[in-house]
Protein: PLP-dependent aminotransferase family protein
Organism: Parazoarcus communis SWub3 = DSM 12120
Amino acid sequence: MSLYQDLADRTARLIADGVLRPGDRLPSIRQTCRSNAISPVTVTQAYQLLEQRGLIEARPKSGYFVRARLGSSLPEPDMTHPVGGSTALQVSDFIFQILDSVRDPAVVPLGSSFPSPHLFPLDKLGRFLASAARRLDPLATVTDLPPGNEALRRQLALRYLAHGASVSPQEIIVTSGALEGINLCLQALTQPGDLIAVESPTFYAGLQASERLGLRVIEIPSHPREGVNLAALADTLRHHPVKACLFMLNFANPTGSRVSDDNKRALIELLHTHQVPLIEDDVYAELHFDASAPLCSKAVDHDGLVLHVSSFSKCLAPGYRLGWVAAGRYAQAVQRQKYATSLATTVPVQIAVAEYLKHGGFDLHLRRLRQQLATQERQLVADIEALFPAGTRLARPGGGYFVWLELPGHVDTLRLHEDALARRISIAPGPLFSAKREFSHYLRLNFGHPANAQQRDALATLGDLIRNQS
């Protein structure tokens, strides 16, 4: 990392931790040069980067000051309180009905589950893919069967190591995206009729996978900033025969919540006590806005209970359908499920991404992507603050590309979805994320697409529709 990026990240951390507060004046360029033994150009570049991130502002003849955090006038939603008891799932028809409605590219994609493809180095990836296809060793069609391409698994193991986790390439199974990974883990751990624990709200794909396998779910309360409630989870594990937990601990979909590092350690210890495995859907971990990444759960998993599922779809290669599971003690069971279902993941794609990770500048791409998403988040929040009615609550994420909104209690977001879609605007209504179709006055919005006039007009229209619902 360059000197100016390091200075910017250290200053951003001081702002995030509250050491530097809104309105505080930053040390002058001259002071910072002296205290850090760096040049004025380096300090200026660092402060300009912080300006681009929206964290500070320059005031003529006065210096640089910490900006007020946008969205500070909007309170966050409360802890969820799902209806007790387990649920036999019947969600797929409802989910497909919603998803089919947002595939039109002419629709403003506020309800999309995907970021803009223009944020990713697809041209560069394409060159790696073309090279991999040209140089493909015919034996790779056999040697790269599950658990997958050895070079790719080694690169993944190195990334785990950089996050403080010792993960052997032998426990990594390459999959066709994270969703296949979740399905393989559920198949390896459960039988029809078994009970699994999920967050409330939760990502609908996990509900679909559980329904397909004939599982029951019990919904655990969660906080829109702090994630799954550990006390409620502990009570559930004491009183119910939970076979596995399916959670997002980092920038959860839909809420954007992040379980703190301390709570993550406590969660892993709790699951260790009950010997209940965790399937962690961790596709957004690389999209953190803070200077440092969240704690990797595999770094504190000392008995192989964590099945860590991730992919490159959200951080590098949308459409390539390349994911993996670091399956701990369950690696062999997951690998056998992979053999029994899709057999293998596309070999040239595995080789191409392995080469990109080694030579393509992945970390540089990630820094740029995080900055862009953080900028887009601030713009979306500012527009919501300006255009949505009183009574709106908003959970600020620390990463990913979703915000979770609670609207005034009389609003029906299923009806809002229909009214918005008639105006070529998509949203993701709250009931989409609940086994019992709760959260009727909540919605998820996507800030993964660069802000423009069309998006702001769409948000203004949504604000009017919300006000006019009776």
In short: Residues 420 and 462 are 7 Å apart (CA to CA). The mean pLDDT is 91. DSSP finds 16 helices and 15 strands in the chain. Residues 3-66 form a domain with the Arc Repressor Mutant, subunit A fold (CATH 1.10.10.10).
